[in-house]
Amino acid sequence: MLSRLSVSALSLLLSLTAWGEDPASAPQDEAAPPTSTAPRAPLLERNVQTALELARKYPQQVRELQAGEERFLALHQLANTARTKGLIVILPADGETADWPRVVAPLRSRLPDNGWQTLSLSLPSPDHLLPAGPSATTADEPADGASAADEASTDEPPEDLPAAAGYLPEETAALPTEADAPVTENETKPAAASLDQAARITAHLEAALAFARMQQVDTIVLLGHGSGAYWAARYLHEHTPQDVKHLILLQAQVPESEDADMAPLLGELKQAIGDFYYPDKPATIEDARERLNVSRRQRHPAYQQIALQALPADRRSEQEQLYRRVRGWLDRQFAP
After folding, report:
1. What is the DSSP string of 214-242?
2. What 3-state class would DSSP assign to 115?
3. Are 83 and 152 in contact (CB under 8 A)?
4. Are residues 154 and 99 in the same domain?
5. DSSP class of residue 320?
6. Tens of pLDDT along 263-320?
7. Statement to judge: residues 119 and 198 lie in one domain
8. In whole angstroms, what is the distance from residue 306 CA to residue 276 CA?
9. Last residue of some domain: 186, 205, 227?
10. Which letter does DSSP use for residue 178 in this model?
11. pLDDT of residue 158
12. How far is CA 186 from the centre of its chain?
């Protein structure tokens, strides 16, 4: 499995970087300045950068899924009980990975102890998180008097920033990196960036649900964190899959790229909804109140909102609280 997935991930990596390779350049004129350098190859999408790392770290859990012409990796864990209750598809927020140390990793690894299979995705990177490509008009040149070592050092992120694979230490929050910078009109982007973000996420979700159905489970649940909650709700609203009857929202947030309101989407859904949020900011409280009011006006039959206590000084206890509350909500939905 590891060998096959490593080869597949490597081929995916090479296919996305091949477009940035320059053909052999003609011999330089003798008068050309010796200090000019070739443009740097464009960086990869963050979710592609994690592919090889996931394959190496979790060889038994990695699953390669096909979304149209895109291949991507997801992490699948079987239930650790004799009877499987169902499968939970987990959608991280923008910029997060299938094994993000907060929220995503604790839930995907612990819910199997309660009888659930989990399938955690790494969604395609939105436009504002796509890495900048080389300049279309100028090549990168070192500043006057700067040594090669000085130039190389500027390409390395500080110690407190995410690694190239997109992972963070357990107690480190997500911080912007060079890959987070917006692409200007003079910069090129990978070919995949030209595709519509919503269509790409829809294709990823379709592939995940197809995999879930192949497991022949009785119940499929969608669980979204941050902007992943918005994409999960939007997918259910637009496609209404009959075999997905439960939706879990964790700190739901509309992506920056979307000019939309999430509350109307939830009001029209028929799935049982568990809406978990931390009332730590006025805007978060206001959004949660609006979702609750819309569910009341629409007389949603199975909408429940759960406020969680933020524990910034004790992240371990905060994650334990989240796991127990989500597990409790799921148990109530399937109580005999």
Report:
1. HTT-S-EEEEEETHHHHHHHHHHHHH--T
2. coil
3. no
4. no
5. H
6. 999 989 999 999 999 999 999 999 999 999 999 999 998 999 999 999 989 999 999 9
7. yes
8. 5
9. 186
10. G
11. 39
12. 27
